[in-house]
Design brief:
With 435 residues, the chain is an alpha/beta fold. Helices cover 40% and strands 13% of the residues.
Length: 435
């Protein structure tokens, strides 16, 4: 082309969670069946919406109003319901105009970062969820700025690391929290959230809190919503139904703005995000209409409780399976539906392998390995995929210096989850013992 087409930040828009699918699909074309552990899609893992929930959604298809545009910020009655749900907690109070709907939180995240100055940075956790870290890095034309989550302290944030990075980097304008956390499954205690709010207040920052998994907390873990601790600090909470109903295909999420008029610059940010949504006219309407009807249903609380219990049991089973594996360390998952396992220092090297008997698969693996500067955990993940046909994601792809992998706790079929965990365990043991 006569000129460059892409700005520098385009190289940061990577998404290994879906990128590895291309390699797994190559194996499928050879006739292999893949165990998918790369993405948090409950439907793909045999989760079924209850019949009563499907009836609610189906009933909306008979209402003529369903087929028109919604308000550019979202269906008013749904925003009124969600505002009241938030206000009942007694923290930051919001009105329906403080809520905006998006076509999934990926849409919301892109719009939040898109209009920030490239020199205005939002510091986020590491390991980082790729949608956030890629969007932040992409807008800034640079690598994401992160604070450390400590695997030796239940994955809680290193508060000294966060404080010092904020203090000595004046380009930081906001702090990202993911609670419960993806990819670690950590749940933030209230006192840690309060400390993070205090840092934002001291340095005049705003907060973004991704709370998509807020109702998926188990094993006796305790947390609270950002609204309950935010006080007078400006903030955005991101929520949705993709993990909770679950209805990921609905692409339905929303942002709640707290204290949006407390700071002129933050007010402008919220207005800009809303204006960007207005240009699109509106987000998908059907799932918005379903939210109050499903969440008000007397069967919904029991449905959520059962979901928590089932994932909690899988968390306990994971602990049981991997308790005697000396090569990795991990913490109990208490929220969301992921676990991150970290290889012990010095365990991985470039000579380790897994046995592959099919020359076609061996040829594929060799082609995958041609990438420059491949991290040692990605190398393991590729071998596991080729040898055991299990698709997981390396932790180095989550903007982390740590080496490990993420797996899910989603599979509803007990025989499949048993098979998956055992294959991953076998892969770890055989790979680490191969040299």
């Amino acid at each position: 082309m006569r000129q460059k087409l892409l700005r520098e930040g385009a190289s940061e828009l990577s998404y290994e969670i879906r990128g590895i699918v291309k390699k797994a699909e190559q194996l499928e074309q050879l006739g292999y069946s893949i165990l998918w552990e790369n993405i948090g899609d409950p439907i793909q893992k045999n989760h079924k919406l209850p019949a009563w929930m499907k009836d609610v959604i189906a009933g909306l298809l008979y209402e003529d109003n369903t087929y028109g545009y919604s308000h550019s910020k979202g269906v008013l009655s749904t925003r009124e319901f969600l505002a009241d749900l938030n206000n009942q907690r007694g923290g930051a109070q919001i009105a329906p105009q403080d809520i905006t709907f998006f076509n999934g939180l990926g849409d919301a995240i892109q719009k939040i970062y898109q209009y920030l100055l490239p020199t205005s940075r939002v510091i986020g956790p590491s390991p980082a969820y790729s949608t956030h870290s890629s969007a932040e890095a992409g807008h800034a034309n640079h690598h994401p700025i992160t604070y450390k989550l400590d695997p030796d302290n239940s994955w809680y944030p290193d508060m000294d690391d966060l404080y010092n990075k904020v203090k000595y980097n004046p380009s930081i304008v906001g702090i990202l929290i993911i609670n419960p956390d993806n990819p670690t499954g950590m749940v933030y205690p209230k006192e840690i959230l309060e400390k993070m709010v205090a840092i934002a207040r001291e340095f005049d920052l705003f907060l973004i809190c991704d709370e998509i998994y807020m109702n998926i907390v188990y094993n006796g873990a305790k947390t609270c919503t950002l609204a309950e601790v935010i006080g007078d600090v400006p903030a955005i909470s991101l929520k949705g139904i993709s993990k909770e109903f679950p209805w990921p295909g609905a692409r339905c999420g929303w942002a709640e703005y707290y204290n949006r008029t407390s700071d002129t610059e933050f007010t402008r940010l919220c207005e800009t995000i809303d204006n960007a949504k207005m240009i699109e006219v509106s987000s998908t309407k059907l799932p918005q209409l379903s939210i109050p009807r499903i969440m008000k249903d007397p069967r919904y609380p029991e449905f959520i409780r059962e979901t928590r219990d089932k994932i909690g049991k899988r968390s306990a089973y994971l602990n049981e399976v991997f308790s005697d594996v000396p090569y990795v360390k991990f913490n109990q998952t208490n929220g969301a539906f992921y676990n991150t396992m970290i290889f012990e220092p010095g365990v991985l090297n470039e000579k380790q392998t897994l046995k592959i008997t099919d020359p076609r698969v061996e040829a594929l693996l060799e082609s995958w390995m041609k990438a420059n500067h491949m991290t040692l955990d990605k190398r393991f993940v590729y071998y596991l995929l080729a040898a055991k046909n299990v698709c997981i994601v390396p932790i180095s792809s989550f903007s982390s210096d740590l080496l490990g992998f993420r797996l899910t706790l989603l599979e509803e079929d007990e025989s499949i989850i048993e098979k998956t965990f055992q294959l991953i365990k076998e892969g770890v043991m055989e790979y680490c013992q191969s040299t």
